[in-house]
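Appendix C reproduces, verbatim, an entry submitted by the partner laboratory led by Prof. M.T., so that reviewers can inspect both the input and the predicted structure.
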Amino acid sequence: MALYINKVFNACGAWGRLEDEYQAELIDIHTVLNQLDNLDYRRESKEFISEKFSSLNWKSRYFLPVGGLPNYGSFKGPPKRVSMLAIKGHIGVDGPMANATYFDSWVTYKAKSASSLGYVSLMLLPLLGEEDRSRSITFEYAVERAKYLEIAEGSQFVLLGISSVPSNMEIIEADSVSRRTITFEPHQVQAGVGLLSYFSEILKQKCSEANSKVSIEQDGETVRLMIKSEAGLEHKVEALLNEYGEVLNGSLAPETFMTDQIQLLALRNKLDMAAMEVKHYQERMSLVQSNYEQRVFSLEEQVTSLNKLLSESITSHRIAQEHVSNLIDKYGKESEVELELISLAKKLDERATDVKKEELENIVRQINSENPKLANEFLTLLRGPLEGVVGNIIYSWLPQLGGIIGTAIR
């Protein structure tokens, strides 16, 4: 008897990467499955599966060999190794399992950690009806449970639904996530968060089929917006977000955006409330600082500034991604660091003010060691058309980043 891959749960483009770059490893996985008659979470069964992979020159347990026992006394930064049932190239295979909590950890920590090391993680799971002898978590259960978990941006992993009966392969896409990061001025925070939160109501009215979930995380004056939508509808959500941005900056009339009269009234009330919150902040500050009103802009200017910031921040841009894609087309060598560069460009386009200087430095070093021309033009890119997108903070890092590649950038 043999086993077959009938269903695939694809997170962050992992399956496409496997098919494009790791055909040999996929063939090995099919070869091992052809030698099995069931998937069992028990230790002896996993050891048997591991032995089959070992016979095909796969390694076991660790992506990166680090000597000695792990020390969990203190957290020392990103993990440098992740245990898996079998590893070859940049592919790690794990499973099956019978512990739902371990599955949560696998998705949110192990697969994310492996992805940060440049690996794609795969989990072998039996389809419903195939798990009777082992009581393993089924593929169907895992897919539904994954919808309640936070899949990190760029965390590439695949759940494989295994059956003893061959059939056409069905690929299920993970929910898509749109992210925006906005840093407000102190007087803008309360009103800005209110306008961002209202987008969840707009989604209910104009795009209910996406089953979107909107969450907002605030860290001082930095606010992160995350919109989780069903796969295949992310473009509609992004388009709606862009239109909302146009309403905020005044280029799209509210009555054009929201034709239902009750919802139009609610939208206008929300915009008026945001203006009132800015006004109330001014009044509070005027009581604390006698010269405050002399230092601030007029209320109209304050509201205009807030709406412009929100509009620019939530409107979808692909400036960084387009420029990076052009650079890779021109200088690319199909290396792993180019994938990291594309991921970074996506973060820059989404106003990711939490991009760390160390992250940029590390990528620039890697690019420079492999492709100096690409590194030089990437920094020129940050200096030029991306200045308005990335902001002054990243722009101020350019002299130090230029020093890494031996080029003066001011």
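The CA atoms of residues 87 and 121 lie 9 Å apart. Additional entries are available on request from the coordinating office.
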